[in-house]
Amino acid sequence: MGGVALGLAVLWALRSDLSFHALLAQPLQAPLWTAGFLLLCYALKSATVVFPLLVLEMAAGYLFPLPAALLLNLLGIWIILTIPYGIGRALGLRQVRKLTQNYPKFQLLMEKQQDHSLFLCFFLRAISCLPGDLVTLYLSATHTHFWHNFLGGTLGIVPGMILATVMGVGIQDPSSPTFWVSAALTVGLSVSSTVFYSVYLKRHRGKEDQE
User: What would the pLDDT profile of 12-23 be if each residue is shown by its tens digit?
Assistant: First the structure.
């Protein structure tokens, strides 16, 4: 929810900035440079857990036609599923656990579901209420297969990415149904994934208590 609100606020502020409008001419003059810069932002985002992915996905939709924006965001997803994976291997499990110590429920879930790694890679990205870069770091440090991380992560992120990209396209006309429908679906996806995650954890805890 916080990422959704921040993404909307940032793009709304940029939309009203005259200097940003000058920048928007660049995709027409140098689309490859603009695309490369956006992918560089994805690479930089993959090294931090504070910058929301949603902002980049919406920015691509705002700067490029929808097919190009979707392709760029897909490439960006693959970047953020790859770089943190390498970092996690380099850091090791002990260091990664220090980074995830503020998410004890996440650690418990990871430890209990290692035998279902492909589903876990999909599930943890689909629920969208955990920092995706930390998820990738932990998966790597626990030696989850790279292709499970890559395939499951892609499938989990893509639905939200498509909605965010369409919302970025629609923000050029905030009164359009395209913008409001995609925004409502994005918020709904965020809320429902959070609720589903809470229910999943409660059921998981209940099974442990019975054992």
Answer: 444 444 344 444
